[in-house]
């Protein structure tokens, strides 16, 4: 990809020459980078993190897609286990059960990759471990939005683990191969089932009858033992999921969802799409003056803005506010969103500048490094200024989900800019995977810090300092905010916690569908429930008082 987006760096050529030192050279398994990921230009590499045997099918030869090896029995059993766990565990909500369901799905993919002759690589382990780690967020947090973001990111990392790849097409297009396997994977698994039973309905019927008899025996004797001993009945009630007849159709949908998902992952592992073979045409190189003049002028503009920011930093905000006539909060609100847009546009400018950069000789490469390196360094100062503006914004108006989200995005964009600067020094072949890894780490950290808890804690601190508090917004947060809101004094505490307590209701979810944040909130509300003598009208008056306090 760097050949398509940036002038060739001599250091890249030197690095390529040592690829075979650790068994990853192009002549061995198609790995052109020596990082044990099987992703290079050789016959077996392409974009996979495991080495894949040759003989691609003719109609997909461009992407290196091969017919998968016959499905192994272990893969089928792992897919069935995924379906059963989905059926019994996912119907009551999402928490640690999602992690439990993902484990046999990963095992199915592992066995399928082994059958296809692929070898485990270091980056495969990184992506797989990262995907599983992201599923810890729903187990810890009650808030839906960080959990949803973590699940989506886990799917993306799982796609990278199954497909492999080091280029931008591999990082960005990997999930497409997963969606295609949602159709081809079940058909592949069904062929494996038919082969094992020789296509004979009698054998299939025998297995089904055995399963039915097993279920009946467990149901009858389990019910008798539960009726004979109350302690055993409580144990079964805690351990066994709800499998009521009324939820039967939904349970069957979850069973199909688990089986299809596991087979799709296994099929992808057995026959990955090698997205690294997608060639992005290089942009037409521009002359030095044509390319450098706009960027040098833009860099000068960045330098002027940053000089003003430093002057404000050392001279204080009072002089600036007096000169502009703005209030402290207006200055903060006006600045952040523009600076966030500046950061995004800077990344776009860098991308297109690399695409059209002059590539004649080493002097061109030095020019590109110097101009874009300076621009990126100044962009880091802009990111720091944006973060400071958001801090001022929060001091004036409090912390919300939107504000903490865009702040996290701005900080991640700063990390991406730093990675681009490092790529200018050490080469850019590792950049796509580094950006993907940084995004995954950011999503994981975002979930682990508990955004709703952080919002509540920051707003409680602001209330203690200023006496201002958005009571209505506090009541709209998830159970993760309960520990921080519990620190408020009455009657504000009861007014803030009552909506959350009403949303939680009575505890009827099983342990595997209850997040740690929800369980912790229930313990706090059980020990110190909201005061019953504080009614809605009192909370409404209190909300007006603390929100519009002058």
Automatic annotation (TrEMBL):
Keyword Plastid found: no
The species this protein was found in: Streptomyces siamensis
Keywords, sorted A to Z: Membrane, Transmembrane, Transmembrane helix
InterPro entries membership: DUF4153
Domain of life: Bacteria
Keyword Transferase among UniProt keywords: no
Record-annotated membrane-spanning stretches: 96-113, 120-139, 170-190, 210-232, 252-271, 291-314, 335-354, 366-387, 407-428, 434-455
Location of region: Disordered: 1-64
Pfam families tied to this protein: DUF4153 (PF13687)
The protein, known as: DUF4173 domain-containing protein
């Amino acid at each position: 990809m760097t050949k398509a987006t940036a002038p060739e760096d001599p250091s890249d050529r030197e690095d390529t020459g040592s690829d075979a030192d650790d068994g990853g050279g192009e002549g061995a398994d198609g790995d052109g980078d020596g990082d044990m990921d099987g992703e290079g230009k050789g016959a077996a590499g392409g974009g996979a993190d495991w080495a894949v045997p040759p003989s691609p099918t003719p109609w997909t030869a461009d992407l290196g897609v091969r017919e998968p090896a016959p499905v192994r029995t272990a893969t089928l059993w792992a897919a069935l286990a995924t379906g059963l766990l989905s059926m019994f565990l996912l119907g009551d909500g999402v928490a640690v059960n999602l992690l439990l369901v993902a484990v046999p799905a990963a095992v199915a993919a592992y066995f399928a990759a082994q059958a296809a002759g692929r070898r485990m690589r270091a980056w495969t382990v990184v992506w797989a471990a990262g995907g599983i780690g992201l599923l810890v967020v729903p187990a810890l947090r009650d808030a839906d939005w960080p959990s949803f973001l973590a699940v989506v990111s886990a799917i993306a990392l799982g796609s990278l683990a199954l497909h492999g790849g080091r280029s931008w097409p591999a990082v960005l297009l990997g999930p497409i191969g997963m969606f295609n396997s949602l159709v081809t994977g079940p058909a592949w698994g069904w062929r494996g089932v038919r082969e094992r039973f020789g296509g004979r309905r009698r054998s299939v019927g025998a297995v089904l009858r055995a399963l039915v008899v097993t279920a009946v025996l467990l149901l009858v004797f389990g019910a008798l033992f539960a009726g004979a001993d109350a302690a055993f009945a409580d144990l079964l009630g805690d351990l066994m999921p709800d499998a009521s007849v009324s939820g039967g159709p939904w349970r069957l949908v979850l069973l199909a969802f688990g089986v299809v998902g596991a087979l799709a992952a296994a099929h992808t592992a057995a026959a990955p799409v090698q997205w690294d073979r997608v060639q992005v045409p290089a942009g037409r190189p521009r002359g030095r003056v044509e390319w450098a003049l706009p960027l040098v002028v833009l860099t000068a503009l960045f330098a002027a803005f940053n000089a003003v920011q430093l002057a404000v930093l050392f001279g204080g905000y009072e002089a600036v506010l007096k000169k502009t006539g703005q209030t402290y909060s207006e200055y903060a609100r006006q600045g952040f969103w523009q600076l966030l847009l500046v950061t995004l546009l800077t990344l776009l400018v860098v991308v297109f500048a690399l695409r059209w950069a002059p590539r004649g000789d080493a002097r061109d490469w030095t020019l590109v490094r110097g101009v874009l390196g300076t621009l990126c360094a100044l962009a880091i100062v802009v990111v720091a200024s944006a973060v400071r503006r958001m801090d001022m914004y929060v001091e004036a108006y409090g912390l919300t989900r939107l504000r903490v989200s865009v702040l996290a995005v701005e900080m991640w964009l700063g990390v991406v800019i730093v990675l681009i600067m490092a790529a200018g020094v050490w080469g850019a072949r590792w950049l796509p995977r580094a950006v993907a890894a940084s995004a995954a780490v950011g999503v994981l950290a975002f979930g682990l810090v508990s955004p709703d808890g952080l919002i509540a804690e920051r707003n409680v601190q602001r209330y203690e300092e200023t006496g201002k508090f958005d009571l209505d917004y506090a009541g709209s947060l998830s159970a993760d905010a309960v520990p921080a809101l519990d620190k408020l004094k009455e009657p504000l505490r009861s007014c803030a916690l009552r909506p959350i307590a009403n949303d939680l209701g009575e505890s009827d979810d099983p342990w595997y569908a209850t997040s740690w944040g929800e369980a912790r909130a229930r313990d706090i509300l059980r020990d110190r429930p909201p005061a019953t003598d504080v009614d809605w009208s009192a909370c409404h008056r209190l909300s007006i008082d603390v929100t519009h306090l002058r």
